[in-house]
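G., before I forget:
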Amino acid sequence: MTTLNPGPRVVKQAIHWMLKLRESGHNARLQQQCEQWRATHQEHELAWQRVQSLHQELNLRAVPGASVALQTLENSSQRLQRRQALKLLSGVLVFGSAAWLGKDLQVISPLTADFASGTGQRRSVRLPDGSLLQLNTNSAVDLAFEADQRLIRLKHGELLLTCAKDTSAPGRPLLVSTRDALLQGFNGHFVVRQDDNCTRVSVSQGTVVIHSPGPTQWIHAGQSYRLDTRGATLLQNQDMDAGAWAEGLIVTRDMRLGDFLAEVGRYRHGYVSCADDIADLRLSGVFRLEDTDKLLQLLPQTLPVTVSYRTRWWVRLERLA
Amino acid sequence: MPSRESVYTLYSHHHGWLNTWLRSKLGNAADAADLAQDTFVRLLQRRELLELNAPRAFLRTIARGLVIDHWRREELHRAYLEALAHLPEAEVPSVETRELLLELLERIAQMLDGLKPKVRRAFLLAQCEGLSHKEIAEQMGVSLRSVERYVADALYHCYLLRYESEA
């Protein structure tokens, strides 16, 4: 399906058919000919479907209150052109910013928006249904809030979702998808994190259902699961509080120093590492994320290590001589 | 996907400059800050490699697109409110409907960006008013053949925007 992409000639034919049918008041004989054309090739049918759906999408007559649409579009377009001419005189043709942005066309719509956070950043977004979405460092999501579902696609990174009851359209499921899994949230809040080789989900309140991988399964408050191609595995004795980052903290219990530094590294630009002979030292405590340099400077107070900066971005921990 | 490192470098070197440039276009610090932020978000979402030879020209291209989107939204809201003001009270749609319609109008306006005025006009007369090609030809004072070509061209333009950018 994805490899099939109708060529320009076929698309133009499909448009031709659609307009001809519309103008003829859907004449039965033409309709039949059009169906024949569609049936001759899969490519024809796909082009036809796309042209139809595009035409519907652009059909302003079907929308209530659209009587003023033409006037609004024409007036605003003239003014927009004047403003562009006035303020962006730069010799560059500003043809179709939309074309340039391509797939991001719908970004401005609150119902299908993208959000992203940079390294060391956290972002909170109130979703159209009232749910609260928090993004941890270096994370990105796509939203697709539609008539029958509320879908959040985690493209990379980590999110904390505090679910709201869907008052605008009760019954729409609240879904989170990642590379490895499809989850459904109910009341409460939970963390979803996509790592290189798995997705982890931790529920702190309420319930989450795993739809995939594996058979449908409930996760209850206090539980964490690892999800990958082999299925869902319950995680025991977590060495870190999954949602503490939302409060700007890393909370560890007996965590390996090597793992701890990898975690801290997510919030920094550059590279943090340690010598092999100290990677298994254990660490428990509450650390603030707002300044990870300060955080690293604190480590020698509790562990036999030294922190050295090779450059500002390259930090290495060694055993205290 | 550009590397985060390179976007970060770009950000730290040019963020202040971009902010100033945007403020000169928008005349408003809060909008400028928002759009500067959006510019870098767009960068992070891009799949191609960055053109780093001329980073400021590159950033300006993205930012300019966002400025136009911003203005388009403003002008649409304004034109829409004006149009509503001329409607009899009973025909003024509810707040929810207005929001929905504005969103739709914005999407359409964005799609039709760059079309020749006649092409755009013919297409909108068909889509908004439901006029037949013959009626459009009469209203615009052009031939039926031209109207057919205009409407088909406009649809093809929209088709490319919608489907070809995903390929």
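Chain B has a mean pLDDT of 83. Chain B touches chain A through 74 residues (CB under 8 Å).

More on Monday.
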